[in-house]
Amino acid sequence: MDAIAPTGKVTTFLAKLNDALEAQDADAAAALFATECYWRDLVALTWNIKTMEGRDAIAEMLRATLGSARPRHLTLDGDATEAGGVSEGWFTFETETGRGRGHLRLNGEGCWTLLTTLQELKGFEEPKGPARPRGVEHGVQPGRKSYAERMEEERRELGYSRQPEVVIIGGGQGGIALGARLRRLGVPTIILEKNERAGDSWRKRYKSLCLHDPVWYDHLPYLPFPDHWPVFAPKDKLGDWLESYTKIMELNYWTRSTAQSARWDEAAGEWVIEVEREGRPVTLRPKQLVLATGMSGVPNMPKIPGMESFKGDIHHSSRHPGPDGFKGKKVVVIGSNNSSHDICAALWEAGVDVTMLQRSSTHIVKSDTLMELALGALYSEEAVANGIDVNTADLIFASIPYKVLPAIQKPQCDETKKRDADFYRRLENAGFMLDFGADETGLFLKYLRRGSGYYIDVGASDLVANGSIKLRTGEIDRITENAVVMKDGTELPADVIVCATGYGSMNGWAAQLISQEVADRVGKCWGLGSDTPKDPGPWEGELRNMWKPTQVDNLWFHGGNLHQSRHYSQFLALQLKARAEGLATPVYGLAQVHHTG
Amino acid sequence: MDAIAPTGKVTTFLAKLNDALEAQDADAAAALFATECYWRDLVALTWNIKTMEGRDAIAEMLRATLGSARPRHLTLDGDATEAGGVSEGWFTFETETGRGRGHLRLNGEGCWTLLTTLQELKGFEEPKGPARPRGVEHGVQPGRKSYAERMEEERRELGYSRQPEVVIIGGGQGGIALGARLRRLGVPTIILEKNERAGDSWRKRYKSLCLHDPVWYDHLPYLPFPDHWPVFAPKDKLGDWLESYTKIMELNYWTRSTAQSARWDEAAGEWVIEVEREGRPVTLRPKQLVLATGMSGVPNMPKIPGMESFKGDIHHSSRHPGPDGFKGKKVVVIGSNNSSHDICAALWEAGVDVTMLQRSSTHIVKSDTLMELALGALYSEEAVANGIDVNTADLIFASIPYKVLPAIQKPQCDETKKRDADFYRRLENAGFMLDFGADETGLFLKYLRRGSGYYIDVGASDLVANGSIKLRTGEIDRITENAVVMKDGTELPADVIVCATGYGSMNGWAAQLISQEVADRVGKCWGLGSDTPKDPGPWEGELRNMWKPTQVDNLWFHGGNLHQSRHYSQFLALQLKARAEGLATPVYGLAQVHHTG
Do A139 and B248 touch (CB under 8 A)? Predict the structure, then answer.
């Protein structure tokens, strides 16, 4: 209630921390933290995305980084607040190379969580607001080139007579968001997209698809959706938005372009990427290579005995064309996660006889419940009305250490179970195998740990519950000419089999493009090391290999949902810009590789 | 300094005004105003754009409108402020049909200026923010159409099997801004654009062109430029933005489409417009027709003796292709306003021998000075930092009655003269005929009164001053095979003559499209009736025929710079929406026609 007490508390703490940091006293700084404590750094001190857990880890990080990073001028920004014995506040700070924004939480013992994020590089600030360009310079200059001529020249030269600094493979939301940030930072970049138009990766999916995340969570950098944008954008509308966005942001976006191979040229210190652009070969030689082909890797096609004998159409969900061609046929969809539910519902809507084949338990959460309980405080109309803009929301989100998340998510998950008890009961009565995550913490942790194993219900669950979508559970024994046969002997007649069986790790792309050796050196992408299904330990504290340096120099992985593409592209772009400008970027705590994929 | 005193004052005033209005007591309401007083109404009470000047005019308007409009719930919004003896504040209010926003200024005597603006129609609010659509509805519906299918259906049907409510002729910024607002209001609209792509009306202009107004003044509705947008956008960048904007806003934007003729079908109560769309005839039958072909009308080609004998290339500035084809030629540009300066400078930059032929005096103001003195308080990075968003700036701008403008502009103009005295001296020394408007009030009033007679200097004036662009002043006697001959006998050899001789009134488009009779009934467009050159009296108090009902039912004129296209499209869109929904829209004080063009 009283804004002065927490503000005084946080101000005093920041002054002490600032003193310790300026005195290069790692132990004194670490001693200001509580017994249970976390310092999450996004590229500000560590040139890495890293969470230090506990005083010792914090002291070790500071010993390694204080000398070069020299963080200073920690200054409270706005008033601090207090709730449940925890004071929290925002602060700004500087390092040797940049300016940052931070957030901290204090409990009775000291600092509980600290977030430090790099916001801009000194001398390489984005030209925005008061620093925006003038546009065409007034005054007259004989023979000067117009904007259109300069743009045309850049399009003609970049990748041919002049090499880009960065090549991004994959022109979905990840590549586009990163490309926009690099454009604002003045880093010459080419984005390679295999489709004909930006946005096609959405347009080409099944026709009823809409975003499962709400609009407030989905903005791209710099150009928020207008305020009439629907809560759940249909795929084609999002595709069109992405296409306009690439134009407005003036990205060098090469459509109908695929990277055939890439290798690191050690002598030249650059990648050599063989590209086919609209049917013609082009060799690109960037310093940095970013794989932004989605948070998922190569489609997983299951190996099922007898598959090759199947006479009908069998395809992976990523190649599913939508329901229109399947009227009058019997379709079996293997899998029970998001894609399977969406595909089954669209088939049912089109009047197709469809069976969902569930092999293992799935977490289901109703979209409305998720929006309200999990996202509402940060990403909603109410949050906007409370002055929480998307950048602030992203930083609050980022301020919660992954280690702490299960304890925060568990009560939300419990509340979800209670609120939708009847819904879950109906699903179980229909034979659906439900779970709520290994530790009953729900969707978001499943997403972070394995990126799969759930469905955000936007309607299909009712069809499963009432039998409109037929449900079969259990293990598959084999596939015959015209059926899927279960271990219990049941035979499911099928004209079409859709394998909604997920994707491998993103480093599979590196194997395809570069080499298995490089993919293995990078190791598994995504996941936290939570020691839960499909996310083996040891604990990593951050998503593996995402948006940060990997064991392979100059190779980066970028992906995730729209929120992550927006937020983490900022930090990946700053890392790339620093390297392009030749700044020292000593990486602290480069993650070890424990799993190859 | 003290925020409480003015807030109390304004609150008390609003309560009294509210009481008088609710009591339907026009005289009591008018008596609350100062001797010199203005009530400017944008569609809230009058269904017109109208300024009432003086207590009598206010009382008369209220007598006519109170019964139907029933304004009420006038409520101060935020704190009032005080400066120089004038208290001012914002307020909200309601009418029978809508909700509004207003602004008022009180002096010692009573209310000096009052602005009332209609912001939304009850029951027909824009679906934005908390009222935004859900997007694709969750749940399942057999046979439902996807977003892409629904969009495709609309594109296929509108104008063919289903008629639009509104047709807008002209797809520049005016038509686009209005189209976006009508789309949000759910009014089926088709925009006709003669060019191949949205934005071509900018792209096709001479290559060095950039906006002369700064970015903060230029936003379109709903989707502001991102904050790296240049201060003065180059024409092609603006063209590309407009093109993306039409797509993002999902406008029914017909390119390569021209209206051949239009007539009002009295029996059917609709326009019959013969259109050629991509070479094929289409007949459109909308209820409302908007001419948005620019604030200027048909190009003025001067009639000069001997013109027909000229052997070279003679063309109007609107058809000038830019300098590239004119190397090695002698070019004479007739006229000395914006277009002439821009064209001359681009020709000089390209190394062409160019002469500007000035026939009458011109107002020149340096862009930087204009930005700082005239726009800085409302449209600048500082204004943004002070929390003045573009909507607020537009309303403050709108709150100043045209009658009061000269007294406000005069000191700015005087300051301009002082600040740039050396610049003006150099121009006069070169023989340039300068003016600062009939009453020395500068650019903005010239713009409002006649839309011409000035140049916003972005560099060409230096070329005139130093003789790089040759300057000749005086009257033309005749044109020969290869020269322009002045009244004083001087001969200006010419291979090319560009007539930068301006445009007629917008109702000229109605003459071309509909009939001279209709054009004459509409009368002259633009101008205030200031009794200054090219703006004959009597005093009108508002721009003639712009964005408001004309003497010809269901025919509307929309145009102006980006600022006006943005701001006034709001009120035109609300007028059109109200008619589309069949609401009563009794127009008060429809302007009389005093001049036919």
Answer: no
Residues A85, A89, A90: CA angle, nearest 5 degrees: 165
Which one of B133, B222, B468 has the shortest CB-CB distance to A226?
B222
Q: Measure the CA–CA gap between A296 and A544, rounded to whole angstroms.
A: 13
DSSP state of B372: I
Domains of chain B and any CATH numbers:
6-121 (3.10.450.50), 154-297+506-581 (3.50.50.60), 301-503 (3.50.50.60)
Name the residue in chain B with its Cα closest to that of A352: B142
Instruction: State whether B237 and A147 contact (CB < 8 Å).
Output: yes
- Interface A–B counts its CB contacts (< 8 A) at 179
d(CA B434, CA B423): 11
- ∠ CA A42-A45-A50, rounded to 5°: 45
Q: What would the two tokens of residue B406 be?
A: 């000269």
Contact A273, A259 (CB under 8 A): yes
Gyration radius of chain B's alpha carbons:
25
List, as ranges, residues 532-551 from A with C-beta within 8 Å of B.
none
Phi and psi at B460, nearest 5°, equal -70, -30
- The reported pTM is 0.94
Asked if B227 and A222 come within 8 Å (Cβ–Cβ), the reply is yes
Among A120, A134, A136, A231, most B C-beta atoms within 10 A, so best to mutate, is A136
Q: Which of B278, B351, B346 is nearest to B317 (CA)?
A: B346
Would you call A134 an interface residue with chain B, using a CB distance cutoff of 8 Å? yes
Query: Contact A227/B128, CB-based, under 8 Å?
Result: yes
Q: DSSP strand E in B439-552: where?
A: 454-457, 470-473, 476-479, 483-486, 491-493, 496-499
Q: Do B460 and A140 touch (CB under 8 A)?
A: yes
Closest CB to B134: pick one of A222, A226, A231.
A231
How far, in Å, CA of B276 to CA of B282, rounded?
A: 6
Q: Is B381 on the interface with A (CB under 8 A)?
A: yes
Which positions in chain B touch A151 (Cβ < 8 Å)?
236
Chain A from 165 to 194: CB within 8 A of any B CB: 184
A70: number of Cβ within 10 Å: 15
Q: Which of B130, B138, B349 sits opposite A459 (nearest CB)?
A: B138
A439 in Cβ contact with A363 (< 8 Å): no
Mutation target vs B (from A228, A242, A348, A457; most B CBs, 10 A cutoff):
A228
Encode chain B (597 residues) as per-residue pLDDT tens digits.
444 589 999 999 999 999 999 999 999 999 999 999 999 999 999 999 999 999 999 999 999 999 999 999 999 999 999 999 999 999 999 999 999 999 999 999 999 999 999 999 999 999 999 999 987 666 667 777 888 999 999 999 999 999 999 999 999 999 999 999 999 999 999 999 999 999 998 998 877 788 888 999 999 999 999 999 999 999 999 999 999 999 999 999 999 999 999 999 999 999 999 999 999 999 999 999 999 987 677 899 999 999 999 999 999 998 898 888 999 999 999 999 999 999 999 999 889 999 999 999 999 999 989 988 888 899 999 999 999 999 999 999 999 999 999 999 999 999 999 999 999 999 999 999 999 999 999 999 999 999 999 999 988 999 999 999 999 999 999 999 999 999 999 999 999 999 999 999 999 999 999 999 999 999 999 999 999 999 999 999 999 999 999 999 999 999 999 999 999 999 999 999 999 999 999 999 999 999 998
Contact criterion met (CB below 8 Å) for B404 and B34: no
CB distance B230–A463 less than 8 Å? no
A582 in contact with chain B, both atoms CB, cutoff 8 A: no
- CB-CB neighbors (< 8 A) of B210 in chain A: 135-136, 147
